[in-house]
Each structure stands twice: as structure tokens, then as C-alpha cells.
Amino acid sequence: MKKPPTVRDYMSSPPLTLQANMCIYDAIDFLLENDISGAPIVDKGGNLVGLISEKDCLKLVSKGVGHELPSKEATIEKLMTKNVYSIHPDMDIYYVAGVFLNKVYRRFPVVEDGKLAGVLSRVDVVKAIRDYLSSR
Fold it and tell me: Is the Cα dihedral 103, 104, 110, 111 positive or negative?
């Protein structure tokens, strides 16, 4: 029987990343310029420290601060999600499909040996399903 595909087979690697000390506005530009809805945040050693998403950016105006947006010096460190659920590159991708159904995330950071190895999105899992169905 054929071995099921793993996260490693479909993850984006190396991932597009940000640093926690990056200006909020530069981070928003980065997301828009790369046509992505979020990105992992790493420290200088490549360790995952958080995640920034469109949803985090919406928090800037949803709390009634639309007229008092953060200064140009404000960093993404205070805006980012810090306790991020991550997955391992050797996980069965079909298992991860179930995890996506039980979590609100659009993407998971992939961590191996404590370092960010890639990112797996829901679209990546759909590609795995397509590949499986076309091979039958």
C-alpha cells in the first residue's frame, strides 16, 4: 500500500517570514505585496515566535482605534499571535486536514528541530487531495 503524503511533500519551504520588531505598516505591505493572508514571525535564530494574519491586522480598526492608528514606529510584536499551533513536516497530510477542520487557522507553521521549516496552508492540503484523487 502506498504511504500517505506528508506535510513535507506539500509545505512551502523556505517560508516567507517576518521579524517581531518589524513596523506594523511594513508588515501589512509585505502581506499585500506577496499576496498572502499571513506569515510566521521568527527570531534571528529562525525560531518561530508568532504569526501575523489579516485577522490580526483587522484588530487595528475593529477596536475603535480607526481614528487613532498606531504610530509608524509600532511593531508587529504586540499585534501578532504568540501561542501558535504548529505541525511537524513528517505528519500525515490527511491527518492535518482534520486538524484544519478543528482549528480556525488558514495555515500552520511547520517546525522541525525547533526551527521553522515551512508553512502548510489549507490550499496545500486541497492540492494533496487532488493529487490523491487523480492517481486513483
Answer: negative
- Which residues share a beta bridge with 81? 51
CA–CA separation, 136 vs 131, rounded Å? 9
Per-residue three-class SS string for 58-111: HHHHHCCCCCCCCCCCCECCCCCECCCCCECCCCEHHHHHHHHHHCCCCEEEEE
pTM of this prediction?
Answer: 0.85
**63 vs 108, residue with greater confidence:** 108
Q: What are the boundaries of each domain within the chain?
A: 7-134
Among candidate residues 123, 53, 113, 122, the one with its CA nearest the CA of residue 89: 113
Whose cell is 480598526? That residue is 61
State the CB neighbour count (10 A cutoff) for residue 89.
Answer: 17
CATH architecture, domain defined by 7-134:
Roll (3.10)
